[in-house]
Design brief:
The complex is a heterodimer of chains A (229) and B (473). With 229 residues, chain A is an alpha/beta fold. Chain A has helices spanning 11-23, 34-41, 60-69, 85-93, 106-120, 158-169, 177-185, 195-208, and strands at residues 3-7, 27-31, 48-52, 76-80, 98-101, 132-135, 138-141, 146-149, 152-154, 174-176, 216-219, 223-226. The two termini of chain A are 25 Å apart. The radius of gyration of chain B is 49 Å and the shape is rod-shaped. Classes of the chains: A alpha/beta (229), B alpha+beta (473). The A-B interface holds A 10, 12-13, 16, 54, 81, 83-86, 89, 102-106, 159, 185, 187-195, 198-199, 202 and B 1-6, 302-303, 306, 309-310, 313, 318-319, 322, 334, 337-339, 341-342, 345, 363, 365-366, 368-369, 372, 376, 379, 432.
C-alpha cells in the first residue's frame, strides 16, 4: 500500500489530485495548510509527498526545509503556479525531488510520482553500478554502447541511445515527454511541437524492426512506456 | 485540468502623505542649518578664547621684562653704591613722567624714595611678578600695576611696578572688535544658513512633489534637471529619479500592452473553446474528438500564457544571476540535434553550421528556449524552402546566432510588426501563438544585452541574435 500526502490549500486541486491518485491505487491524505502538512509528514511514514509551493501560514519551501532539516527523506514533488525556469531551480535547490508547474496534466503528475517512488526504493535489482540493461530479448551494454535485440545488432545515434537507456531504467513506467526532455536533453521548457515524439518513433522503428514483439508503447494522453504491451 | 489561481492581494498602496509646509521648520534641513550655526558659534568662541590668552600672555611677558630690568638696575646700584645712590636713581626715574610705581624703604618700613606712600599689604617681601592695584601719590585712585619686589640683605625693600592701564585698554579694544567681528560673522552665517536651507528645501520639495504627483497617477511628470552646467547632487538625484520613473512608465506600458494583447489574443481561442464545450453539453461527444480539441485548445492557451509570462520576466531582467559560461556552438548543435528528426519528417534539411567553440555568458535554458522557438518558427513558416541552417559564430563584438530559412520570408515593411509581442503577420497563423515565439526570442536576446534582428535571405528569412562576448557579458 503506497501512501501519498498531498499538501494543497485549493480544495478543487486537492480533490482532483486525491481522486486521481486514489483511482491509480494510492492511499491519499490531504493537508490543507503548511503546518498541518509538516505535522503529518514529520514521521516520515509517507511514500511520497505532493507539496504545493504557495500555502497559507507556512509556504511550501519552508515546509520542505523543515522536513529535510528534521531528517525526513520522503520524496517530495513540488507543485507551483510559479512555473518559470528560475523558480523551478529554486524549488529543486530547496530540496524537492521534482517540480511541476501548474496547471499540469494528471498523467504527468502520476508518472513523476511513480518515478520518484521507484527511485526511493532502489532495491529492485540490488546491483551497484549498472553496466548492462536487459529487457526480454533486448540487451544494452552501457560501456560498449552495443544494443542487441534477439541477438541482432541495432545501431543507435548517441541521443537515441540515451533515450533508450532512460526508458529501460524506467521500464514498465509511464515516462512523459517533459520527463524525457529534462533527463535526456537537460532542458526544462516545452518545445511545443512533437519534437520528442519523432525521436521516440525513430527509436521504436529501430527497436521493433524485423517483426519482433513491440516493446515501446505510446500511452495516450501521457507519454511512453517500455514494457509489456 | 483545473487552473488554480490565487486572488492577488491587491490592496492599493496608502496615498503619500502630503508635504505640509508648517512641518518645514522642524525638518531635516532646518536641523542641519541649526547645527551649522551652532558649530560656527562654538568655533568662534574657541578662536576668541585663544586670541585672548595669547594676547594677555604676550602683554604680561612684556611687562615682566620691563619691571625686571628696572628692578635689577636699581638693585645693582644699591649693592654697589649704597642706599643713597639707589634713592638718586629712583628720584631721577620719577622725574620722567612715566607710568611707573617705585618705592624704596628701610628695615623699619620708612620710605626713602618713590611714589607709593605705603608698602601694599598684598605684596610679599620677595615677589617675582604680581598684578595688583596700586595708588600712586598725586593720583585720584588705584590703578592696575604689574609689580616686582626685592628685599636687600640689610632689611631694605624695593618695589618696582608698571602701569597696565594702557595694556588693558588695548585688550579691551581688541576684545570688543573681536566680538563685533564674530557677531557680524554669525549674522552672516544665519543668513547663509537660512538661504541654503531654503534652497535645499525648495529643490527637495520639487523632487518630492514630482514623486507625489507620480504616486498620485500622473506618470508623465518628471523632475526638471539642468542639463548643462552644474550637474550637482540634486541634478543627479533628479536624473536618477527620472530614469527610474521612465523605467516604471515603460514597464507599465509594457504591462498594459501585454494585458491588452493577451485579452485580445485569448478571446478567439476562448470563444472557440466555449463553443466546443457548448456543443458537447448539447449533443454529447461519443467519439471524444471535441474533448480532444478542447484539450488542444487549452494547451495552446497555456503555452501562450507561459510564453507571455516568460517574456515579461526577461524584459524585467530576471535571470541575469543565472548566466553561465557556455558554448553557443554546442547549444546550436544540441538544438539542431533535437529538431533534426522532426525537420526530416517535414522534408527539411536542418543543419548546424559551426566552425569551433563560441564562448559566451548566457542563461542556457532561456537561450535554448529562444533558439527552439526560432527553429520551430522556421519549420512552421519557412519549411517550403527545404533547408534551414543554424549558424553559431564569433564576431568582432561577441557572438552571433543565425537561423536562416529559404521560405517566403517577411517583407521588410512588416519586420517591426513581427517583433512586437502580439504582432502576428497573418491572422490565419493563429495556432500556438506564433507571434510570441519571435517576441520571446527578442526579449531573451535583450536580457543578454544583445539584440534580435530580421534580415532577408534571398529568398527566406534570417533571424540573427547578436550577443556580447564573454568579457563584456
Amino acid at each position: 500500500m503506497t501512501r501519498i500526502l498531498c499538501v494543497e490549500d485549493d480544495s478543487t486541486t486537492a480533490d482532483y489530485i486525491a481522486k486521481g491518485l486514489g483511482e491509480a491505487g494510492f492511499t491519499v491524505d490531504v493537508a490543507s495548510d503548511g503546518r498541518d502538512g509538516l505535522f503529518r509528514a514529520s514521521d516520515g511514514s509517507y511514500d511520497a509527498i505532493v507539496l504545493d509551493r504557495m500555502l497559507p501560514g507556512m509556504d511550501g519551501l519552508s515546509v520542505l526545509a523543515a522536513l529535510r532539516a528534521g531528517g525526513v527523506t520522503t520524496p517530495v514533488i513540488m507543485l507551483s503556479a510559479l512555473a518559470s525556469l528560475d523558480e523551478r531551480v529554486k524549488g529543486l535547490h530547496g530540496g524537492s525531488d521534482d517540480y511541476l508547474g501548474k496547471p499540469f496534466a494528471f498523467a504527468e503528475l502520476l508518472a513523476r510520482i511513480e518515478a520518484l517512488r521507484r527511485r526511493a526504493a532502489p532495491a529492485v535489482t540490488g546491483e551497484g553500478q549498472v553496466t548492462r540493461l536487459a529487457y526480454e530479448d533486448l540487451e544494452v551494454d552501457l560501456l560498449t554502447r552495443r544494443v542487441l535485440r534477439g541477438g541482432r545488432r541495432i545501431d543507435l545515434q548517441p541521443r537515441e541511445f540515451r533515450l533508450l537507456e532512460f526508458l529501460l531504467r524506467h521500464r514498465d513506467q509511464v515516462v512523459t515527454r517533459t520527463m524525457l526532455l529534462e533527463d535526456v536533453w537537460d532542458y526544462h521548457f516545452d518545445p511545443g511541437t512533437n519534437v520528442i515524439d519523432v525521436h521516440v518513433s525513430r527509436l521504436r522503428k529501430k527497436l521493433d524492426e524485423g517483426g519482433a514483439r513491440p516493446l515501446l508503447h505510446t500511452v495516450r494522453g501521457a507519454g511512453y512506456r517500455l514494457g509489456e504491451g | 485540468m483545473p487552473l488554480t489561481t490565487r486572488p492577488a492581494e491587491a490592496s492599493p498602496p496608502p496615498p503619500p502623505a502630503p508635504l505640509r509646509r508648517q512641518n518645514w521648520p522642524r525638518s531635516t534641513t532646518t536641523r542641519i542649518a541649526l547645527l551649522v550655526f551652532l558649530a560656527m558659534v562654538g568655533t568662534s568662541a574657541i578662536i576668541l578664547g585663544f586670541i585672548a590668552r595669547v594676547t594677555q600672555g604676550q602683554l604680561d611677558a612684556d611687562a615682566r621684562t620691563l619691571i625686571t630690568a628696572e628692578r635689577e638696575a636699581i638693585v645693582s646700584t644699591f649693592n654697589r653704591d649704597g642706599a643713597n645712590a639707589a634713592r638718586d636713581v629712583i628720584m631721577a626715574e620719577l622725574r620722567i613722567p612715566r607710568a611707573v610705581a617705585l618705592r624704596l624703604e628701610d628695615a623699619g618700613h620708612r620710605g626713602i624714595a618713590g611714589n607709593i606712600s605705603a608698602w601694599p599689604a598684598t605684596l610679599p617681601r620677595q615677589a617675582d611678578f604680581l598684578r595688583i592695584d596700586l595708588m600712586r601719590t598725586g593720583q585720584d585712585g588705584p590703578e592696575p600695576f604689574a609689580v616686582t619686589s626685592h628685599t636687600f640683605s640689610n632689611g631694605y625693600r624695593l618695589l618696582v611696578g608698571r602701569n597696565l592701564a594702557e595694556e588693558e585698554r588695548l585688550t579691551a579694544t581688541l576684545t570688543t572688535s573681536l566680538f563685533a567681528a564674530v557677531g557680524l560673522a554669525l549674522l552672516l552665517a544665519t543668513g547663509i544658513s537660512f538661504l541654503v536651507t531654503r534652497t535645499i528645501a525648495r529643490r527637495i520639495e520639487t523632487i518630492a512633489n514630482v514623486a507625489g504627483a507620480v504616486a498620485g497617477g500622473d506618470l508623465a511628470r518628471r523632475v526638471e534637471v539642468q542639463t548643462v552646467g552644474t550637474g550637482d547632487a540634486f541634478d543627479r538625484l533628479g536624473t536618477a529619479l527620472n530614469a527610474m520613473l521612465g523605467r516604471i512608465e515603460l514597464l507599465l506600458d509594457e504591462l498594459r500592452s501585454v494585458t491588452d494583447g493577451l485579452a485580445h489574443d485569448l478571446r478567439s481561442p476562448l470563444t472557440r473553446l466555449k463553443a466546443r464545450i457548448d456543443r458537447v453539453q448539447r449533443d454529447g461527444d461519443a467519439a471524444g474528438t471535441d474533448i480532444a480539441a478542447i484539450g488542444a485548445e487549452a494547451d495552446a492557451l497555456l503555452a501562450m500564457l507561459d510564453n507571455s509570462l516568460e517574456i515579461s520576466r526577461a524584459e524585467a531582467g530576471i535571470g541575469r544571476d543565472r548566466f553561465v559560461a557556455m558554448d553557443l556552438a554546442t547549444l546550436a548543435s544540441d538544438m539542431v540535434d533535437m529538431y533534426e528528426p522532426l525537420a526530416e519528417d517535414n522534408g527539411v534539411r536542418l543543419t548546424a553550421v559551426v566552425a569551433g567553440p563560441v564562448p559566451i555568458r548566457a542563461h542556457r535554458e532561456l537561450l535554448g528556449r529562444a533558439l527552439s522557438n526560432l527553429i520551430d518558427n522556421a519549420l512552421r513558416y519557412g519549411a517550403t524552402g527545404g533547408a534551414i541552417e543554424v549558424i553559431a559564430e564569433t564576431t568582432a563584438d561577441g557572438a552571433r546566432l543565425t537561423i536562416a530559412d529559404r521560405g517566403p520570408g517577411i517583407d521588410p515593411a512588416d519586420r517591426d510588426d513581427a517583433l512586437r509581442r502580439f504582432g502576428r503577420l497573418d491572422a490565419a497563423r493563429s495556432a500556438r501563438g506564433a507571434g510570441l515565439g519571435l517576441a520571446l526570442a527578442a526579449a531573451i536576446a535583450r536580457l543578454h544585452g544583445g539584440a534580435l534582428t530580421l534580415h532577408g535571405n534571398k529568398p527566406g528569412l534570417r533571424v540573427a541574435i547578436d550577443l556580447p562576448g564573454r568579457e563584456q557579458g
